Amino acid sequence: MQFILSHWELFAALAIVIFLLILTAGNPASLTGCKTVDPQEAVALMNDSALVLDLRPPEESRQGRVSRAVPIPMAELAGRVDELGKNKERPILLVSGDGRGTSGAAKLLRAEGFNNLYRSS
Length: 121
What we know:
- The protein is built from seven helices and five strands.
- The chain is an alpha/beta fold.
- It has helices spanning 2-6, 8-25, 29-32, 39-47, 58-61, 74-80, 101-111; strands at 34-37, 51-54, 69-71, 92-95, 117-120.
- It is elongated.
């Protein structure tokens, strides 16, 4: 107990970190700004004029094409964001082979003003 009283700042910081973890655990989209959708929702978005952004590398994209997707590999996205400029208000469905690339892409696109981002589960 003496340790806690002597180092109350550390415990206050710990409490804040735990609170933030609990807050974001219930809503992982708050970390990336990207909502995860199931396959049915993804199809509905595609039918409702969403822009589909294929982030897979070219060798992976050749194995299976996503209908009407714009192929911009994750490694090239930062240099090609301006190609998407007119779509800032349009829903954008991010597709990545392993799903990990969508988080980085979502953060980059959010920083550029894209706010309607989704990723398939």
